[in-house]
Amino acid sequence: MPNRLFQKAFFLLILVTSLVSASAQVRTTGQISGTVVDSSGAVLAAAHVTARDASTGLKQMVTTNATGQYVFLDLPPGNYQVTASAQGFAEAVYSNVVVESGRTRDITIQLKVGTATERVEVSAAGVTLETTTNTLATTIDPDAIQNLPLIGRDILPMAQLVVGAQTGGDERFTTYDSLPNGAISITIDGMTANSMRYRTSTTGFFTFAPLRLGAFDEVTVSTSDLTADAGAEGSTQVRFVTKRGSNQFHGNVFWQAINSYFDANSYVNDYLSIRKPLQVLNDWGGSVGGPLWKNKLFFFVNFEALHQTFAYPTDTEYPTAAAQSGIFNYIGTDGKSYSVNLLSLAARNGFSSTVNPEISPILSAINGYAAHGAVAGVSGLPYEQSVSYTGLQPDQEYYPTVRVDYQITPKVNFHTSWDMWWRNLHNYSETYPGAQPEAGGFRSTYYVFSNGVDWTISPRLINQANFGIEGDVELFNPGNSFNYFQSQHQFVITPAYLANSGPQIFTPVIPSFVLPLPRDNPVWKSGTTCVGRMANTRSRLGAIFVSPTATSWKSITRQPNILVWALRIRPWVCSRSIVRRSGVAATSQISTHWSICRTLRLSTLRWSGVLTMFPEPVM
């Protein structure tokens, strides 16, 4: 009795410590629980139960209590072999016991009278009901992830296959049970993976970090009665777990390619004698995993890359030679053609009779670039002409994922993972054939870095600590400098629109959005969760506390427009300003569940609290 009181007191002490000093932790491990009985259904106390990880060979052992109950509170997802034995009974072996992230596998083990040398083997591969938890969850297992049809190699759409998922239009509008999108919490190995910048009531099913097909083992979606390790972060939990290394070395490579060289041209292109458009795509990569120290230290590495180049036809309009010299030809409302010398008209009204000195060198440069394309007139706009040319858009994307698991002691396990997406998108077009600089390029580095320590304090009490970082570093117009507008005396040229609903009179050689613009929205998260079961009862207590979230970005300041000639010229101040905003969002939750008997479970307590602080931005 004193020993049981000590266990309860120690459990409550750990729980209070979690509330005071912890931050968020979404459980990435699973559980096996159940009862050991004899052939008549009577419970067996003091029976020995062992769970062995089939991939790493690591074992955990527990002893049933007075009511024959046992539980493995902290098991990494995978395939297990469960063995039970008791004095006077033959050993029972249950193989193919699948443990899934954030879920409990319930197995009632039946022992038959016999000698210790006898062995009874049972396959547990069939689906069983979860009788010790009320959480409504669905797991997409590794076989389904690898074998189901998928457009591309991003497995986030797999989470849309569960009951209750609803998608309207874009994938990011997906929700569950008609709840707001902001209620969805997506995690990678326990670390937040949601795009916090775009996590709103309408667009929450969205991640920055990659979820590549070769890097992840399973996805579990929980939508109801979440426990304390997850319920404070969102009413719907979407948990992705990276693959682990094992005691055997395994690896694979792949290459998927598209090349327009092997494609036929379209009928229309053939009729118009247009060459088929260029498209080259190479999607390649591979993975390898195994032991660094057998039965102790394991690694897994996945690398994927996407290189693609495609051509696109484009055209740009600019003034004719006559219009550049001031002679403006146009079609009047009566349908007749007219001509007027704008420079002479300006001189008669007291204005300058020469072309604006800021515009003249720009027009000369445009004429030089246009000589590299096909020039033609523009129907209905006699003062305009068009240059047609073909542009190329090369893009590169890389997806490295690394995970390391270290069994420090039989009761302490450490795991760390890094999931990254680096890309360099040349999603710009030259304003004219061969013109520089180019605008609209984009380079980004998105990643989720997760670390966790699982400590089995006793067979009925565990503590999980976690620390992670989510980053999304972005740079618009990479490679460009802040000096492009010096040649224009720091003016941004924005040509006017001279026809109703028509285009600008010309496109400036140096676009308005050309300066580099960096942006970063990091999220830090650390925490601990305590889970346990008290003696002679089947109860579970836990707590959660979400850590700081910080946001920072950089911007360029602009000044108002002024109108000069038939063009708008905007002074540009090339000063850089940094706006930083940080805040703290903290939540905590306690839940207790009691099993009255083997067929009746009661949720007796659920408490949660939220604290959010976001001060004013700091310039």
Reconstruct the topology from this structure.
Elements: H1 2-21, E1 30-37, E2 48-53, E3 59-63, E4 69-75, E5 78-85, E6 91-99, E7 104-106, E8 109-110, E9 119-123, E10 136-140, H2 142-147, E11 165-166, E12 175-176, E13 184-188, E14 191-192, E15 216-224, E16 236-242, E17 250-259, H3 267-271, E18 279-293, E19 297-319, H4 321-324, E20 327-331, E21 337-341, H5 342-348, H6 360-370, E22 374-377, E23 384-409, E24 412-425, E25 442-458, E26 461-476, E27 491-495, E28 517-520, E29 523-532, E30 548-558, E31 562-564, E32 567-597, E33 600-613
Parallel strand pairs: 1-7, 1-8, 6-9, 13-16
Antiparallel strand pairs: 1-4, 2-3, 2-5, 5-6, 10-15, 11-12, 13-14, 15-16, 17-18, 18-19, 19-23, 20-21, 22-23, 23-24, 24-25, 25-26, 26-28, 26-29, 27-32, 28-30, 30-32, 31-32, 32-33
Please characterize this protein's 3D structure.
Among the domains are: 99 residues, Immunoglobulin-like (Sandwich), CATH 2.60.40.1120; 107 residues, Ferric Hydroxamate Uptake Protein, Chain A, domain 1 (Beta Complex); 75 residues, no CATH class. The chain is built from six helices and 33 strands. The protein has a 15-stranded antiparallel beta sheet that branches. The chain starts with a helix and ends in a 6-residue tail after the last strand.
Keywords:
619 residues; mainly beta; Immunoglobulin-like; Ferric Hydroxamate Uptake Protein, Chain A, domain 1; 15-stranded antiparallel β-sheet; 33 strands
Summarize the structure.
The protein has 619 residues and is mainly beta. Among the domains are: 25-123, Sandwich (Immunoglobulin-like); 136-242, TonB-dependent receptor, plug domain (Ferric Hydroxamate Uptake Protein, Chain A, domain 1), CATH 2.170.130; 315-389, no CATH class. It contains six helices and 33 strands.
